[in-house]
Amino acid sequence: DDQIQTVLNSGVAPHLVSHLGQSDVRVLTPAVRAVGNIVTGSESQTQAALDCGCLSYFSVLLQHQKESIKKEAVWTISNITAGTKAQIQAVIDHGLIPLVINAL
């Protein structure tokens, strides 16, 4: 959690999240991994990623043609849904649960 907090304190999270919209997998892959790593932290650290708008990208990521992107996206959503009721509800509200099921 300390390393995640260092990343968040640096202010880079919004930039990482913005890269979730990239079409170039050389940029997209590390961005998905980085955001995925952030949401393995505490509930407040997960919330920081959500506050940056990361969920809005996952409908596309969960349907990506590259399997490794889908795998990282499912892993990220899985970690978010281990959070608070509000975080789980946010995933539901973004319509991501059926997409996770389809990606499996």
Describe this structure in words.
This protein has 104 residues and is an all-alpha fold. The protein has helices at residues 2-10, 13-18, 25-38, 43-51, 58-61, 67-80, 85-93, 96-103. The longest helix is centred in the first third of the chain and has 14 residues, at 25-38. The termini are far apart.
What's the total helix number? 8
Portion in beta strands: under 5%
Radius of gyration: 12 Å
State the low-pLDDT regions, or none. none
Please state the structural category.
Answer: mainly alpha
Alpha-carbon distance between the two ends: 28 Å
Number of strands: 0
- Biggest sheet record: none
Q: Please estimate the helix content.
A: over 70%
The overall pLDDT average reads: 96
Please trace the helix and strand order, writing H or E for each element.
Answer: HHHHHHHH
Give a short overview.
With 104 residues, the protein is mainly α. It contains 8 helices and no strands.
Features:
single chain, 104 residues, mainly alpha, 8 helices, 0% strand
Outline the fold blueprint:
Layout: H1 2-10, H2 13-18, H3 25-38, H4 43-51, H5 58-61, H6 67-80, H7 85-93, H8 96-103
